[in-house]
Amino acid sequence: MINVAKIVIVALAILLAGVPVHPENKEKTLKLFIAEEFEQNHNLILIEYYEYNLRTKEKTKIIKKPLESTGLICISTDGKYLLYYDETNENKFIRIIDAKSEKQIVDKSVSFKVFDKSITTNYVIMNGATGRWADSMDIYLYNIKTDELKRITNNDVRDYNPVISYDSEALFFLQENEDLTKTYLKRIAFGSDKVETLHIFEGTAYRLYQCLNDGKLLMTKRDNEGTPFLWDLETKESIEYNLDRISDIMISPDGKKMFYLRISEIGPYCDLYVSDVDGSNREKIEPNENWNILSAQWVMN
Q1: How confident is the model at residue 2 (pLDDT cuts 50, 70, 90)?
Q2: Given 151, 163, 164, 229, which is the most exposed site by the fewest CB atoms within 10 A?
Q3: What percent helix, strand, coil does the chain show, rounded to 5?
């Protein structure tokens, strides 16, 4: 009887070993997409991009082909696409490549200078200026699948920091008034032309980073020592983090971790930290020797 039981277990193990693992059942890996720069005597020499695996602590260089990028390259959260902006003389393009093969997918001419930009599986979200001095900026949305570029706002003020809602049904952004005394938090639902004003903050220099799944927005006020806070859309109340000198901060897609770039106290560069969302288990991510960290993004694939 014991031998029969062993045979059954072995046979079951062989059968299970042959069962394919479906992609939706595969456990996803949390990584950081990091941009580092090498400087020599304050002259920019090189920018390189890496994926940092939080579990293995391994850092892998990606983007092997040189790309003519004006500003930093960004990645979609699922790690599928890389987005960059190229401005040469009067020609302006947004370009998307496959992150693995580096094959070009989108080569789109635009009529505006791109500033903020981010990419999801379906959309590119940007703010841009058609004027020379960027004293007014508008929000643009590009649909990757349909190749449709839509101008969301058309104002004589600065609309900036566009982010897509967690459910991908709306777009949030900030707007400064003409005399730079107030900042408006705006929202527009996809498929609608109606822009809502959700709140008015006193002063300017606010920055919007992320819309979370619990109805809160992750923000900072740059002239308040870069202190990040969560803004509750329902209660209109804020919860401050015990952090300062923050130039960038993001919660991970699974809601368990956060990273932040803190401006160094001994130089003009930033230190990159990863921690649990409550600030515990903090880890400093070191750049390569003689390099400086410029930016980071979450990737989960």
Answers
A1: very low
A2: 151
A3: 5, 55, 40
